[in-house]
Write a structure and sequence with these properties.
CATH topology: Rossmann fold
Number of strands: 10
Distance between the termini: 20 Å
Number of helices: 9
CATH superfamily: Alpha/Beta hydrolase fold, catalytic domain
Number of domains: 1
Radius of gyration: 17 Å
Strand content: 25-35%
CATH architecture: 3-Layer(aba) Sandwich
Length: 235
Amino acid sequence: MRQILVGLIVLMDFLGLGPKIGEVTLLTRDQLKLAASYYQPIKEKAPGVILLHMLTRDRNDWHSLAKRLQKNGYGCLSLDFRGHGESLGQSWRNFTEKDYADLALDLAAGWAFLNNQPHIMKGRIVIIGASIGANIALNFAVDHPDIKALVLLSPGLNYRGIETQGAISNYGRRPLFIAVSKEDLYSANSSAKLHSLAQGKVVFKTYNGSGHGTKLLKQEKELADIIIHWLKENL
C-alpha cells in the first residue's frame, strides 16, 4: 500500500499536482512579520514538524528534508528567523543579545500557526533545529511539554547567550535525537555533554568531516532517512 501511495505522489509531482507548499506570513508577539513555508501534509490529521535554521542562513536550507517529510506523511513549517531571509527586522549582522533571545518569539509564532492547522494533530509536533535553532528549540520545549520530541543538529552549550545545559535537565524523558560532526569541536563537546545529561531516550549520532548544522544533511545522505525513521518510531 505504501509503495502505491509513494508512486502516486511521484506521478502527481510530475503532473504538477503534488503535495501543496504554501508561502505564509507569521506575526510575532512583538509585531514582526516573518516569512515561512508550509508543507501541507498529504493526509488528514498528520504529525507536524517545525524547522529552525542556523544563524546567517534561511529556511531554504530545509527544503529537501521538508519535502521528504511531507511525502512521508508529515506537515512541515520552515520559517526565516527575524533579520534573516525574507523576514523583517534588523539584519542578523546587527543583533544584540536581546535579539538572539527574541528568536524564541519567532518559534512561538510558528508553533501557534502549526497548532491551528486543521491537518495537524494536536500533541504530535516535533521541532528540528540546527545550531542556534537547536538551542532555541530545546529551551522552547522546556516550557511546552506538549512538544513530542526534538531533533538537534549541532547544538551548543551556549550560542549567543542561548544556553542549553539547564534546559536539557528540564526537558524530561521526552525522546531526543542529536547529530554532530566530530571536527566541529565546540558543538561535538557540547552535544556529548547534553547527551550525558539527557534523562530519556536519546539517539546520539556523530560523523566525520560533515560540517555544522544543516550541512550534515548534505554530507551524510542517509541522515534524513535516519531522522524520518526515528520520527516514525517516536510519533
